[in-house]
Amino acid sequence: MIRRTAALVAALALAVSGCTGDPPDTEPREGLLRVLAGSELADMEPILEQAERETGVEVAITEIGTLDGAQQVVSGKADGRHDAIWFSSNRYLSLHPGAQARLGTATTTMMSPVVLGVRRSAAARLGWDRQAPTWAQVAEAAGQGRFTFGMTSPAASNSGFSALVGVTAALSGRGSALDAAGIDAVAPRLREFFEGQRLTAGSSGWLSDAYLRRQGSGVDGLINYESVLRSLNAAGRLPEPLVIVHPRDGVVTADYPLTLLASAPGHARDAHRRLAAYLRRPDVQRRIMTQLHRRPVNPEVSAAGFAPVPAELPFPARLDAVQALLGAYYDRIRRPSRTLYVLDTSGSMQGERIEQLRTALVALTGGAAGRFERFYNREEVTLIPFNGAPQTPLSYTVPADNPAPVLARIRDTAEGLKAEGGTAIYDSLLRAYEVADRQIARDPDRFTSIVLMSDGENTEGADSADFHARFAGLPERLRGVPVFPVLFGEAAAGEMERLAGLTGGRVFDARSQSLDVVFREIRGYQ
Predict the structure, then answer these.
(1) What angle do the packed helices 464-472 and 425-442 form, to 10 degrees?
(2) What is the pTM of this model?
């Protein structure tokens, strides 16, 4: 049986979030391989279950973002807790000084380039079904409003990170020599490219679900792993299939190296050797190819049905260049975001709970959060505390330059939250949609989302049925605004799941981990 646990941490934030817990019953022992892995490998579960039956190697996976996982390895936090890592790539990890000393044998297991999936009609309109474009031509089409797309957050998901690195390398022509000056030079062309982005997400899977919800509403395609795009087509849920487009000037490819940690005990080294050999067997490579749509790496297996992969785009050779690129993306390049926080300040939040809420919000102002977790420059932030009724919304726009004074104002507001009164969840959500309606009308060019945090059940005002009925009557631009409920205290989990499903959001659970960690994870979806 394969055991998995999600590591709810954000990219580049190890100093804040620390290590996550291991799956149950994962003390080191013979036949067990404890693996720190990217969440996109969840689809490997049937393959790994068969591997256990045939090799005796049981795999216990802890899911984590690639960038944060690299930080855990470099810091030594992974030593003793995990025996191996299995990320989509080790390229980012290799940029850290001293990283190589913490790694043992690495075995490439499969491949999947990050490419475009374009609706068949859009590909025909753009001519991309006849000749693949360059990334520069994609950027031109996006800047002119002729191509729109979804992409994951590069600080939370490797597919988004790889896309950002690849596009930047192609547009700049500097590749591994990229530095801060080169990023500044290419920033106008990157802004043109990201004019076309209409969907963002913290994971490839949620991005696919969001795209399915948005069919027919102005999103032409996705930038994602080739395997994810082929899986979408194979599932038969798309009203219009995706044309897989490989930009002809190059791509960034995931090669999924199963990598032993240098600290792994002897029995784990043997388990790693057996599992790696199993995964590269020709019959297993064919299963991975046909069932999971990833390319084989064993030369004995032909990649039947896959188009030739263009050249591999160069990866930056310096860690500071990658961090400068991520900073520029969030603060200057991508479309800015708008987030409305609907915050329970009812009487049940008194004491430790209201203090946790204050701490979580203060962290997002930069007090404790990592660089790519705090409120971004240009982001519009609205706080709507509620108890028996929604309180006055308080809105702030973080400026592109000198954000500190506005972040301090948000911090002061968060620290002043007090707990009293009843719990009017749905009246407060409806108020948030009213506020969002005015904000979108004034400035439509933003990613907009709502975060709902409550520690209990609704006790006053509209109920769940009332909200569902009212939601159905909202204009389309508002029905596209997702709600991300956060389970806290005695929150009604079933109602929150239905709310997330209705609005296209996702539930986050803060009942078994700190609220500030969950708030930071949500940043990947904003």
Answers:
(1) 20
(2) 0.88
